[in-house]
Amino acid sequence: MDIKMIKFRLLSDGRGGLIAIEQLKDIPFEIKRVYYIFDVTEGAQRGFHAHKNLQQVMFCPNGSCKIRLDDGTEKAEVLLDSPDKGLLVKSNIWREMYDFTPGTVLMVLASDYYDEGDYIRDYAEFYRSLKDFNLEEM
Ligand code: T46
Q: Is the minimum distance from the CB of 35 to ligand 1 under 6 angstroms?
């Protein structure tokens, strides 16, 4: 699977760390929404869905978690364990988030406003939708 990691530039000095993120420069889309996941219950797993059109960049400004990606053909696991390590998740990718360490914040920059209609929350439906998507691409 083609996994796109984005390395943010560290502007740290003797006083501490600083990272600046700019749309269309560090992020390959206009950022329409920002949300973050925190206080995750020990052992909890989140996600278990795909998006029809949404693109997102995820990173952990604090702590770490794992992201399982599945494009219907291949699966991959990505560890987000550093504030300068971003993961681009394009549309039509099933994602699961797990192994959150205590105190982790998962930050997500999204290419669009919240729309429940963009979610595919059923794996069988996701798998079927890929066939339609691939036919459209041909
Ligand atoms: C994703 C992963 C990484 C809103 O009302 N507005 C929002 O912007 C979001 C993100 C969620 N919600 C509502 C929808 C649900 O009723 O908040 C509730 C929890 O959302 P969900 O169960 O989808 O949360 P996660 O952690 O499973 O998934 C989230 C994002 O929804 C999703 O787009 O890719 O984080």
A: yes
**Residue appearing with tokens 């982790």:** 104
Q: Tens digits of per-residue pLDDT, 66-118?
A: 999 999 999 999 999 999 999 999 999 999 999 999 999 999 999 999 999 99
**pTM of the complete model:** 0.95
For residue range 28-64, what is the model confidence (pLDDT) as tens digits? 999 999 999 999 999 999 999 999 999 999 999 999 9
Q: Which atom of ligand 1 is nearest to the CA of 110?
A: 33
Taking the C-alpha atoms of residue 118 and residue 128, their distance in angstroms, rounded to an integer, is 15
- SS3 of residue 56 by DSSP: strand
Catalytic position from the list 49, 66, 68, 85: 49
Which residues share a beta bridge with 97? Answer: 46, 67
Token pair listed for 133? 């998507």
User: 108 has which bridge partners?
Assistant: 35, 58
22 CA → ligand 1 middle, Å: 23
